[in-house]
Design goal:
The protein has about 110 residues and is α+β, with helices and mostly antiparallel strands. It has one domain (about 1-110): Glutaredoxin. The chain is about 50% helix and about 15% strand. It has helices at about 10-20, 35-40, 40-45, 65-75, 85-95, 100-110, and strands at about 1-5, 25-30, 55, 60-65. The chain has a 4-stranded mixed sheet, with helices on one face. A hairpin with a 2-residue loop joins strand 3 and strand 4. Helix 1 (about 10-20) runs parallel beside helix 6 (about 100-110). It starts with a strand and ends with a helix. The relative contact order is 0.19. Bound molecules: glutathione. Glutathione (GSH) binds near residues 33, 52, 53 and 64.
Length: about 110
């Protein structure tokens, strides 16, 4: 799985850390965060809003970190990202949008360990 990202992106960290947590191998494809790269026709095909992260996996591309995390969760249910009960799932999703991408993954990890 390829993760398109740039250094310092908290939203991309979500995906990297989710992969680390679940033991999913990934290939980080770093780019410079310039408009030329992010809004290029090639990148907009992967990420229609021209933002990172975007992934390529199973012959498809996907953007938006929460959508990517949901995809990873469905494909690799072991070591769940959102908790194991309905209330844990709900409170994880409730709290996460109020926090930055980097901080929010710590919340997830805090649930696991
Ligand atoms: N809602 C998106 C937000 C992604 C986002 O804002 N990414 C930033 C980097 S942290 C970005 O690509 N910014 C470049 C730009 O807006 O031109 C997600 O969760 O993936």
């Amino acid at each position: 799985m390829k993760i398109h990202m740039f250094s310092g992106s908290g939203f991309a960290w979500r995906i990297q850390l989710a992969c680390e947590l679940k033991g999913i191998p990934y290939d980080p494809a770093y780019m410079q965060p310039t408009p030329e790269n992010l809004k290029s026709a090639a990148f907009l095909k992967l990420s229609p809003r021209g933002k990172v992260p975007a992934i390529e996996a199973d012959g498809y591309s996907l953007s938006e970190s929460l959508a990517i995390m949901a995809y990873l969760e469905a494909k690799h249910p072991e070591r769940p990202l959102f908790g194991t009960t309905q209330s844990a799932y709900r409170s994880t999703l409730h709290v996460r949008p109020r926090l930055g991408g980097g901080v929010s993954i710590l919340l997830i990890l805090g649930r696991q360990f």
